[in-house]
Amino acid sequence: MIISIDGPAGSGKSTAARKLAAKLGIPYLDTGAMYRAIALAALEAAIRLKDEAALVEIARKADISLDCGPTHTRVTLDGRDVSEAIRSMAVSQATSYVARVQAIRDILVEKQRAIGKRLGALVTEGRDQGSVVFPDADVKFFLDAAIEKRAMRRYQELMADGEEASFELIMENLQERDGNDRKQWAPLLEPQTAIHIDTTDSNIHDVVEKLLEEIRRRGLLP
Ligand code: DC
Predict the structure, then answer these.
(1) pLDDT for 183
(2) pLDDT in the model for residue 187
(3) Which among 118, 28, 15 has a CA at the least distance from the CA of 69?
(4) Distance from the CA of 161 to the center of ligand 1, in angstroms?
């Protein structure tokens, strides 16, 4: 069983996907972490983020491994734990440059499909999981929320991680990333068959219950 959860930054999809996977007892795949790890490698190598050929080279060489558990995602880049480092604002911003490069998307899409094939059952989360990577997913969800609410969630996450954060800057950053995601590079495609859930006024418990209800309705739960 493959369940895809797509949506913009701060829509609550990561937490929802993680909790849903734990409830179903199947693995969870955080595909944003893969793009983030490549962005971190690029920043560390001090290459120009507009140099697409150099970014692709980094993506080809980077040895990324993911351990997506019920409470956190551990990410290693060339054997080093970068789980915290990939969540900084600097990396979030740099990731936009990485995610717009089609050759990098092709590399990661292939890796994600290989993971799906190997695991057989998973909850996968990102921007293009139901549309591009797993068009035959058994259930597709698309989560969204008002931008102010999404910015507040990001702000609280960064504060909890002890990062310096400004709400205004996060709003600007989100607006820019939404623009990138939705228009120019178009990975944020909402499949027609996806179940659209607005999480603006819902808590995470209610969101996960809604997801479970839809899966149950399709007869996919024992
Ligand atoms: O979900 P996130 O914030 O960790 O995603 C980080 C960035 O990667 C974000 O700019 C969107 C991009 N991304 C993508 O283009 N495709 C995916 N499947 C997952 C993330």
Answers:
(1) 62
(2) 52
(3) 28
(4) 19
- The closest residue, in CA terms, to atom 5 on ligand 1 is 32
Q: Which amino acid is at 164?
A: E
Residues 73-107, buried b or exposed e (16+ Cβ, 10 A)? Answer: bebebeeeebbebbbbbebbebbbbbbbbeebbeb
The domain 2-214 is placed in CATH, from the list 3.40.50.300, 3.30.2090.10, 3.40.1190.20, 3.40.50.620, at 3.40.50.300
The pLDDT value recorded for residue 31 is 96
Q: Whose CA is nearest to atom 20 of ligand 1?
A: 32
Which parts of 78-193 are beta strand (E)?
80-81, 122-126, 139-144
Question: What is the pTM for the complete model shown?
Answer: 0.91
Residue 96 in contact with ligand 1 by CB distance below 6 A = yes
Mean pLDDT by 10 residues, the chain (222 residues): 92 94 95 97 97 97 89 91 92 91 95 94 94 95 95 88 86 83 61 90 95 94 77
For the chain, the C-alpha Rg in angstroms (whole number) is: 17
The pLDDT score that the predictor gives to residue 179 is: 78
Contact yes or no for 11/144 (Cβ under 8 A)? yes
By three-state DSSP, how is residue 160 classified? helix
Query: Token pair of 24, please?
Result: 């179903």
Q: Please, which residues bridge with residue 73 across strands? A: 68
